[in-house]
Request: fold
Amino acid sequence: MKILVVDDDLHIQRLYKEEFEDEGYEVVVASNGQEALELFERESPDIVTLDILLPDIDGIRVLRQMKEKNPKIPIIMSTAYDYRDDFAVWASEAYIVKSSDLKELKSMIKNLLEKK
Amino acid sequence: MLEKLKEYAELIFDKIQDGVLVIDRDYKIISANKASEKWAKKSLLDILDHSCIEIFHDNDYVCPHCVAKVTFETGDVNVAAQRFQANGEEPSYAEISSYPIKHGDGEISECIVFIRDVTERMLCHEEILSLYNEVIQTKEYLEGVIENSADAIITTDLNGIVSSWNKGAENIYGFTKDEVIGKFLPFVVEGLIDPEWENNKRIREGEVIKRVEAIRKRKDGQIITVSLTLSPIKNTDGEVIGISGISRDITEIKRVEQELRRKNQELERLFFISSAMRGTLELDRLLRMILTAVTMGDGLGFNRAILFFYDDINNILEGVMGVGPISHSEAYQIWAKLSMEKKTLTDIMREIDAGQSLQDSHFDSIVKKLKVPLDKDTILTKTVKEKRPFNVVNSYSEPLSDSVFSEQIKADAYATVPLISRDKVVGVLWVDNYFNKKPIVDEDMRFLIAFSNHVSSAIENARLYEKVQVAEKELENIFKSITDMVYIISDDYVIKDVNPAVCKRIGRSREEIIGKKCYEVIHGTSVPDINCPHQITMQSKVSHVKEIENSFLGGSFIISSSPIFDFTGRFVGTVNVMRDVTELNELRERLVKIEKMAALGEVAARVAHEIRNPLVSLGGFARRLEKKLDGSLKDYAKIISDEVGRLESILNDILGFVKEIRLFKERIQTKELLEDIISTVESELEGRDIMIKREYLELPEIYVDANRLREAIVNIIRNAIQSIDGNGTVTIRTYIRNEMFLLEVEDTGKGICEKDLPHIFDPFYTTKKEGTGLGLTISNKIIEEHGGNIEVESVEGKGSIFRITIPINIFNREAKNENSGS
Reply:
């Protein structure tokens, strides 16, 4: 199973990569929206964690483009700020506020992949 | 005897005053008398037998040689005058004459030359000559003056037959000199010959007639006025033999003079009319004055006049007023009456100004019905459009004449002038002379135009005045009907007027309030309030707006105070508008609070954003370390991850507070909700001796966001628990009050001190060592989002009661009805 991690914070990228790899997933990382969309097509990930605040393209727009390309790939919005009231994020399968405790995120990934 | 004669001759020869010389053909002086010495400037001995040329020719004196030479050559007597001048001497003249002496054969052998001093005679002659020249010059000059004079200078004999006729006369009368010399004066006007003979008689008696005016007829038939001066011409015996006349054309001067006089009269009339008009601002009265001025004999003197106003909105001309008789009989009646009463324009103007003479005539009632739309081109509409006057000589043959004039007014000739004020046409003045049929001439038109200029501005003023009056009425209505309190105060704090809103608020009648001091009525004080805007406006003389707390009237008010100046610009008081903003202020305070929250939220969100990412990696890697390490290092890693966890939860609290809440409402049972909450908090008691008591009176179904409401209530119960040191009780009661679900949380804790009580819901306000200071703020926000509120009652040392009310809204009631129905 391949996870695409999209986050412009390099430490978080590494944290997610190591933690998910420990769980047995293959992980690819992208630091901006453009890169994320390229990897989404090239690497065909099974699931995506997507930050909203990105240096180039707004994460919400990245979400929409990914859903246009392949609506079956679950996407978890993982952000530093609570965007739950933004209707756009409802297009994603799940939403989580980033936390140093990755338990919830990991279970979310597991559940979504199982559902798939 | 011959000897004797010779002796006499020699005697004469010697004694004679003239120089006498005998010269032979060789110009040798054969003989000379004593007097010759003077001319030769030499003695006789030096002269005799000398050549005449040698003696005389080369000097500056007289030269007998030259005179004698002619006689020798021609054989005739020769006479010459010679002028000579010795150095430094007066000029002298000599007359030299030579006589031939002939022998028997007829040949001239000698000449006798006489030299005579003619200086005296010559000087006399020169004088006469110069006098003569002078006379000639003077004559020429006079002739020139006469000839070139702009005045006509004419001489005649006593019968009026022209003997001289200068250029001026040609110019003034048009006849040339050749046409009139020898003929009777050509310019005398038939029928006016008698005064001419009268003048002639006086001249014959030697009188001079100076600068009298006379009428003359030019060759082209034009009659001119001249100023005439006539003088007798006398011969050397003093007998009058002729008449000289100087005449000057004063026609132009007369015309200008008349023009000036007429202008002056016009101006006088205009000045009078306009000053009378300026005196009145009442439109109707003014219009009647204007039209009367137009139709009165000593006004403009037209028979009838109509005033039209131009309505620029509907683009029509409307008849406003007409003055004049409608029929001949009425006209004669009026004229007869006027001539009997001998009323002047001044009298009538006064009558109108005093409000008399305002009766409507039949003509006026016709005029008032006239309406002329401007879409067609007629004389009347062109007067407006082209802003110029028209003089219609025949309304029946004029194609553009308005039919109303020929049909209803029956005017056969009339004139119109536009009334222009500030470049805009405000109306049209129409006049005619229907009854006396006097043609309207250029002069009438000029006067009418001048008059219209005065009228226009007066009408404009009166219309403005009328508008002001309407505006005043409107203002009064506004004043009466406005819900804000409006009152007018003089500069000595006396209330001059109030509107009904003031009376209502104060609870006294207008009559009771007017005349009182404003500070007594408005502020309930005995001295002026220095903070009152009226006070400030009085000092600054400019409008001032201020919000004041007024405990006397009970509330907050915005008072706007504006200065009032009288027409001389003197400050006389203020007009004040007072609005009760108590309610508005409460709203505003709430708004400020909301804004404060929003600002706080934005800052918090941004800060949280920047903090969360480092916290995630910090805590995340600490957890990884914790997994991989052993012993005390593992503990250190745990401390880091725990502390990060605590920071993250604070962050979540802040973000939970700042995020705008979207409620996901659902129907829930209050009992289930409360039991769930109580079990949560009880689990947190951790063996503390605190009892949670349930006193449920009513447990309705409510329509709320269960998770949010749960969070709000948990916070409040936790707060209650935390207030208890040691053992105590938290009592939870439920009621329904006024269709609201009421939840009471009472604790037996330490209570909230009075100072803190108003601030317990403020963000980050906490008395506890732990906690974010956001718990109660968030609870309050959630309850408010549900349309409810929290009230707190607290006694320090005894405990607090939090009362939460939540509306049981329509969905819930429907649900309830369904339940009760089933």
Notes: Residues 784 and 790 of chain B are 8 Å apart (CA to CA). The two ends of chain B are 212 Å apart (CA to CA). Chain B has six domains: 2-117, 149-249, 265-469, 482-580, 586-656, 662-820.
